[in-house]
Design brief:
By secondary structure, the protein is of the alpha/beta class. It folds into two domains: 11-180, no CATH class; 198-426, Phosphatidylinositol (PI) phosphodiesterase (TIM Barrel, Alpha-Beta Barrel), CATH 3.20.20.190. Helices cover 24% and strands 28% of the residues. Strands 2, 3, 5, 6, 7, 8, 9, 10, 11, 12 and 13 form an eleven-stranded mixed sheet that branches. An eight-stranded parallel beta barrel has the order 14-15-19-20-21-22-23-24. β2 (16-20) and β3 form a beta hairpin. The longest helix is centred in the N-terminal third of the chain and has 16 residues, at 96-111.
Length: 430
């Protein structure tokens, strides 16, 4: 990152953030405290990375080491006084309503002389057709002619509009006078209430044990059951001789166990290994024994997409929810009375009324990345209102987006989360 010419000034980058995102407030809008200082003038560097669909890279903006990934469309970053900024993504690819809201906000920001930036991600221009004159009238000439798969960056931090367009990617560092921004809030948060309940939390890959994630081990199940989890996800894959075992993938398992043989291993080879030398691996016998001894626990599967074979092998089909990765597998599970959690890709691939499809197939659970819920707010609300429980994964994948962040900012729109660790806020009233 480029350093500010004012780096000689003694100040501390704090990047303490308060979010206005989703859950207790539902929009892709977040406010950050980015600097604390003793001097009268401080400039902060903001890096804007816009990537078109062609690059298959995620667009971001970054201040120092804090990075925010954005969704498809156009994202406005508004720089406020008091060292804060807020941002929101508008789905200008798929929603005319979002385009009109974007234009309304931009009009207000320009009229109030707000300091702000815009960046595009993916294919951001599809729904801009018909709004060219309005966009151009705002002084955004290059945005008014933006093509479907182009990168775009704009900023107006000194009262002058600057725009860039590229067929692939743009990276630009801009300096913002932290003290000159206004106090106006353009992206007010929306508050959603939710009732605390233990079934909002799934122990991801068995949950963290001694600071180690994704072990899928008996020790992880034991430790996280004691902490309060009652729903446990395990990744289920096959050994070379066709036995079902719990491991995220064979390369990760080999790293965890220092195994140097051929992958996949045989069942016998798998059972001989210890994860990090300490943690016990789980095959179907081990999984069934553990859940037999914990009759109030529920298993969520990942990776496996054969609902009948696994359900027949598991000890209690009533305490089993299988995340499935194709519409065909979901329909097959429905025919055999197997509880299903449809994954993100098949859910988004359903044409027409997604909620009706889920109801017809008795699907009561959905798993999606927390990275998409801002752009899929309408669908999230439809699922919530239909009584379908949405759980988000990718917790702890982005800086600062941990269990506490999801609890504070995203629960209420979505039902629950895949959590690596138990936090005090998860304690249920029931």
């Amino acid at each position: 990152m480029m350093k500010s010419p004012y780096s000689a000034i003694n100040f501390k980058i704090c990047l303490l953030f308060v979010s206005l995102f989703i859950g207790n407030h539902l929009e892709a809008a977040t406010t950050y405290t980015i600097c604390s200082f003793n001097e009268s003038v401080i400039y902060g560097d903001v890096v804007l990375n816009s990537h078109s669909f062609n690059t298959h890279e995620r667009s971001t903006f970054m201040y120092d080491s804090q990075s925010e990934a954005v969704e498809r469309g156009l994202t406005i970053v508004h720089f406020q006084s008091g060292n804060n900024f807020e941002f929101k993504t508008f789905d200008t690819y798929g929603s005319k309503e979002d385009v009109q809201e974007l234009l309304d906000v931009l009009t207000k920001m320009i009229e109030s002389k707000a300091a702000f930036a815009i960046l595009a991600h993916d294919s951001a221009a599809a729904q801009l057709t018909g709004y060219e004159k309005q966009i151009s009238a705002l002084g955004l000439i290059q945005l008014s002619t933006l093509k479907g798969r182009q990168a775009y960056v704009m900023h107006n931090t000194k009262g002058v509009i600057s725009e860039q367009v590229n067929d692939n990617s743009i990276t630009e560092t801009i300096q913002v006078n932290i003290q000159l921004g206004g106090k106006e809030i353009f992206f007010p948060k929306e508050v959603y209430e939710f009732e605390p309940s233990y079934d909002r939390y799934i122990a991801h890959a068995g949950g963290e044990v001694n600071g180690v994630k994704s072990t899928n081990s008996k020790h992880a199940l034991d430790e996280n059951y004691k902490k309060g989890f009652r729903i446990f996800e395990l990744d289920i894959i096959e050994t070379s001789d066709g036995k079902l075992v719990a491991a995220h993938d064979w390369n990760m398992w080999a790293r965890f166990t220092d195994y140097t043989g051929t992958l996949p291993p045989t069942h016998s080879q798998f059972m001989k290994q210890k994860i990090y030398g300490d943690y016990t691996t789980l095959d179907m016998d081990g999984i069934n024994t553990w859940f037999k001894n914990h009759p109030d626990a529920t298993l969520i599967t990942d990776k496996v997409n054969d609902p009948i074979a696994f359900a027949d092998a598991f000890i209690d089909k009533d305490r089993l929810i299988m995340e499935l990765f194709s519409v065909m597998a979901v329909e097959k599970a429905s025919e055999h009375g197997i509880n299903t959690m449809i994954s993100q890709e098949p859910l988004l691939s359903i044409k027409g009324d997604k909620v009706n499809f889920l109801k017809v197939n008795n699907v009561k659970h959905v798993a999606v990345s927390r990275r998409i819920i801002a752009s899929q707010k309408k669908l999230m609300l439809q699922l919530r209102d239909a009584g379908i429980k949405v759980y988000v994964f990718n917790v702890n994948f982005d800086t600062g987006k941990d269990e506490q962040y999801v609890y504070d900012n995203e629960l209420g729109l979505v039902y629950g989360m895949y959590a690596d660790k138990w936090i005090p806020a998860m304690k249920s009233k029931n």
